[in-house]
Amino acid sequence: MSHSTRRARRALRAALGVALSAFSVGFTGDALADDNHFQVPSSLAGDVAVVMPTNYASPGAWLLDEAVEDVSETVPAAPSVDNEPNANAEATDQSSDDSVVADEDAAELSVPQTDDESVEDSDDDDGSLEERFEEFEEHLSELEDSIDEVAEVAGNKSLVVSGSSKSTMKVSGRVHLDAWGFDNDEGVTQFAGGEDEENRLGFRRLRFGVAGKVKDNMLYKIEMEFAGGNDSEFRDAYIGWTDLPVLQLVLAGNQKRPYGLDHLNSSRYNVFIERPFVIEAFNEDARRLGLQSYGVSDDLAWNWRYGVFNQRNVQDEGNYVGDHLQLEVAGRLANTIWYDDISGGRGYAHWAVSGAHADVSKDALSEARFRTRPEARTAGTRYFDTGQIAGADYYNLIGLEGVVNVGALQIVGEYQSNWVERDGFEDVRLDGGYVYASYFLTGEHMPWDRESGTIDRVTPFQNFWLVDKCDGCREAGWGAWQVAARYSQADFSDGDIFGGEGEALTVGLNWHWNSNARMQFNYVTGKSENSTVGNRAGAPIEGNYDIYGARFMIDF
């Protein structure tokens, strides 16, 4: 038998040993027999059982060791050119060794061998070995795929054991620690309840939740907010059904209403610390109890969501009680009109239109009230507030949004208008919008989720880290650095309603330490005018403010 054939056999045995070792570690069941016996696949070894010495922990380890021994013992010595007789003797000895090795190989693989085997039989054996080796490569490839599938599940440390063997559970959470400082003039003092706005330090968000799937096509999510101390609230809390005909995904429970891109974006990914005037005023706290369908086209170019909601924010109450259900029908249609797959999504463009029709009650529970803070987290007083709009019967809202991203640069804009229809009073129209630009100094980009039509998680080219080296030097990675600026405007005053007209400029700096953690700094300068907030009986006034904010955040 040729040296190349023997080497191929030994390579085959070594590879089989590695595969069986991985197999014995990664799987349990009938693949390996009891004790020290295992069955070699019939395509490789002619359906023979092999017995492994008892001093080996696994068949893979034994086969690997055997392969190493064979290689070390049977490597032919180089012939001597200085001494011809010695060279011939070594060749004779090597021929004898070759016969012994061939007999050992034959015994291990149960392949009959004879001393008078012809050259043609040897060639046939080489061909048969090549076929077997090809079969083994195919088998090993299938085994590697199976191992990868198991490793993907076993290595997902975000999965925990649920209370039911037929369901899954994934834990998530976020921590947002804020610091705010205020510099307001006398007019803004009225908006803040007649006192100077005090500085703040504390948790903006402190959330923990679980989500998972239930056989066959159901899912669930429960997320709690603990930033209020003893006054805990829930956020996302729903059950759902996936893979439905036409409807695709349906969720029933507390979830975000489908308008306002900056609200549909997760607070984990938003560029600025707080949301613009109009987005928060027309969709305060975003989530409502409702039933909503979510869909996406096969090519990911289009996505949509629509549903019916109760307008009351019950996150701190748990229930809505009232004769008038105050129902709202809302929807959003979004289109990723351009997406550059070649660059991994570093270039894209998006537009969307959204709208809502909402019936409100005429009693003290009326949801016809629109209010917001000054794009910063104040103590609780909203600088812009329409109060409950008297005589409101229903309102209609429409929103437009657009995004263009080219590499490290992103430009985003939104506009929303709200027409409030009233009985016995003049109808009013409230509106507002914003535009911002952001840029990564380190070259990253804002990823885009085409299934939801929202921004996604930033991945720095290099995470932030700092270590001391043995030679006394230091090495560091500096994360991703992003700068941004936003101009925002809103008008909540019309007719006999003096909720305030505001504008603000926000400058931001984001330092992404890694994909899950970052620091944000915002400077906000703005003003409010034509407002009676804080003194409804008085004349409309105006005021200016400067606010400084920082946030340290992580999510998991």
In the predicted model, the low-confidence regions spanning at least 5 consecutive residues are: 22-51, 67-114
**General shape:** globular
State the distance separating the first and last CA atoms.
60 Å
Percent helix: 10-25%
SS field, number of helical segments: 8
Average pLDDT value? 83
Quick recap:
The chain has 556 residues and is an alpha+beta fold. It has helices spanning 3-26, 42-45, 59-74, 84-109, 119-154, 186-191, 261-264, 277-282; strands at 37-39, 49-51, 159-160, 169-184, 200-214, 218-225, 233-244, 248-256, 287-296, 302-310, 327-339, 347-359, 371-372, 384-385, 392-406, 409-422, 428-440, 448-449, 454-455, 464-468, 474-478, 480-494, 497-514, 517-531, 541-555. Strands 4-5-6-7-8-9-10-11-12-15-16-17-22-23-24-25 form a 16-stranded antiparallel barrel.
Secondary structure layout plus pairing:
Layout: H1 3-26, E1 37-39, H2 42-45, E2 49-51, H3 59-74, H4 84-109, H5 119-154, E3 159-160, E4 169-184, H6 186-191, E5 200-214, E6 218-225, E7 233-244, E8 248-256, H7 261-264, H8 277-282, E9 287-296, E10 302-310, E11 327-339, E12 347-359, E13 371-372, E14 384-385, E15 392-406, E16 409-422, E17 428-440, E18 448-449, E19 454-455, E20 464-468, E21 474-478, E22 480-494, E23 497-514, E24 517-531, E25 541-555
Antiparallel strand pairs: 1-2, 3-4, 4-5, 4-25, 5-6, 6-7, 7-8, 8-9, 9-10, 10-11, 11-12, 12-15, 13-14, 15-16, 16-17, 17-22, 18-19, 20-21, 22-23, 23-24, 24-25
Helix pairs in contact: 1-3, 1-5
